[in-house]
Amino acid sequence: MNILFLCTGNSCRSQIAEGWARKYGSPTHEIQSAGIESHGKNPRAIAVMKEAGVDISSQESTKLTDEMLSAADYLVTVCGHADEHCPVLPEGIRKEHWPLSDPAKATGTEDEIMAVFKASRDDIQQRVKDLIERLTLEENAK
């Protein structure tokens, strides 16, 4: 099972989702993330994940390729822009959309911005846990 998380720039939400999926997924899960564009990794996303015990610092910020898309079994778009601009999917790929707001657009003090990043991290963690649980149940039912 190849799970691909797609975002606009592959800098924050999809990176966080990839980190959680690597933590909760099984050895049979291939986990990737990509962006419609590649914006580099967001240091705040790396920091809040490290705080939660997940190191995403070695993950790459990558632009979606046809090869990545054709290898995917399950695609999760994590923002509206990626959902709207997602290329036509090859037959057989399942897709779901998570309408997540972008923590990188948070404003205020550093503490207020980090609170938004932590809330986003925790929301994505629960969504990934639920996804992995559903996919594992489906795989075990086969």
Task: Briefly say what this structure is.
This protein has 142 residues and is of the alpha/beta class.
What proportion of the residues form beta strands (DSSP E)?
5-15%
Mean pLDDT: 94
CATH top-level class: Alpha Beta
Structural domain tally:
1
Reported by name, the CATH topology is Rossmann fold
Q: Order of helices and strands, N to C?
A: EHEHHEHEH
Helix-strand category:
alpha/beta
Query: What fraction, in percent, of the residue positions are helical?
Result: 40-55%
Oligomeric nature of the chains: single chain
Number of strands: 4
Could you describe the largest sheet, including whether it forms a barrel? 4 strands, parallel
Q: Can you tell me the overall shape?
A: globular
Identify the CATH homologous superfamily: Response regulator
Number of helices: 5
What CATH architecture label applies?
Answer: 3-Layer(aba) Sandwich
Spans of at least 5 consecutive residues whose pLDDT stays below 50 are: none
> What strand line-up does the widest sheet have?
2-1-3-4
Radius of gyration from the alpha-carbon trace, in angstroms: 14 Å
Distance between the termini: 13 Å
Overall description:
This protein is an alpha/beta fold. It has five helices and four strands; from the N terminus they run βαβααβαβα. A four-stranded parallel beta sheet has the order 2-1-3-4. The protein is globular, with a radius of gyration of 14 Å. The mean pLDDT is 94.
Sequence-ordered SSE layout with sheet pairings:
Blueprint: E1 2-7, H1 13-24, E2 30-35, H2 43-51, H3 66-71, E3 74-77, H4 80-85, E4 94-97, H5 110-141
Parallel strand pairs: 1-2, 1-3, 3-4
Helix pairs in contact: 1-5, 2-5
